[in-house]
Amino acid sequence: MAQKITLEYDISEYSPDKEPFYVDVNGETNIFRTAYQENLPVMLKGPTGCGKSRFVERMAHELNKDSKTKFPLVTVPCHEDLNADDLKGRHLMNGEYMDGPALVSVKSGGILYLDEIVEARNDTTVVIHPLADHRRSLAIEKLGKVYEAPDSFMLVISYNPGYQRKIKDLKQSTKQRFVAINFDYPSPDVEKGIVEHESGVDGKTAEYLTEIGTYLRNLKGKGLDEGASTRLLINAGKLIKNGIEPAQACEIALLNPITDDIDVYQDIRKGLEDVVQNFFP
Ligand SMILES: Nc1ncnc2c1ncn2[C@@H]1O[C@H](COP(=O)(O)OP(=O)(O)O)[C@@H](O)[C@H]1O
Ligand SMILES: [Mg+2]
Fold first, then answer.
1. Angle (nearest 5°) at CA 228 between 54 and 255
2. Per-residue pLDDT at 230 exceeds 90
3. Residue 16 burial by CB count (10 A; 0-12/13-18/19+): exposed, middle or buried?
4. At a CB cut-off of 8 Å and minimum separation 6, what does 43 contact?
5. Which residue among 145, 163, 182 closes a domain?
6. Shortest-distance ligand to the CA of residue 114
7. Which residue is closest in CA terms to ligand 1's atom 15?
8. Is residue 19 a part of any domain in this protein?
9. Confidence (pTM)
10. Overall domain count for the chain
């Protein structure tokens, strides 16, 4: 019996009627397009929940719109056990070779998006480096073949250069193969529109949530490792839209997820309550 190996990736095929909603914050759309045309691999740097994955989905959609032949976006959520073979593929019990996500995207000329690359095992650099420099190739030793990436292929990685990076960091030899686009939470006026669109709350509520988000972000370092992301503001909006009281919605969507430290929690909770009360009397 052939044993099925489950690889952690999904291929989202282009679908013209489903344009991912994305608001350009700082000209990143144009930069990404230029990098794509010049066959430059791209690194997206920024905190969690600030729009990196959504941006890649939108760009894959836009680039497909311009392209005669359609190609997939292959997203790999990296984790601490992910190794080079997980990306390249492996032989099944019946001898058949099952292509891994890197091989799938090279063969199909797709966009390979390695999300949170820093989590992956070090040996994944044997896959990443040749795909990220002039070689643009993938060697599959087990098949005795080297695959050249077609022009439409692009490598994109994301990483969060946050507080953990003292423990885990990318090697310079990896970093220096990419152009890097810095992401951050959008400015309040832009973020307001995003929260409104994504959660379905009205403009005023969205604006207040962004203000509350700014308040929490300013506490970063004072006990908080990361501020409340755009994603969390959207979650709070979804709760409020469905009738959950703003004070409770903000506590469970914005505060509870970002700290496990009971002292920090108690400190911040009172301040947050006052701020929420101020906007939602
Ligand atoms: N610039 C943006 N335009 C549209 N939506 C955004 C933007 N930034 C963040 N979002 C919203 O925030 C959510 C979280 O973003 P995501 O791309 O998953 O973050 P990341 O990959 O950086 O962790 C998205 O699902 C989307 O709803
Ligand atoms: Mg992401």
1. 135
2. yes
3. exposed
4. 156, 157, 158, 159, 175, 178, 179, 180, 181
5. 182
6. 2
7. 51
8. yes
9. 0.92
10. 2
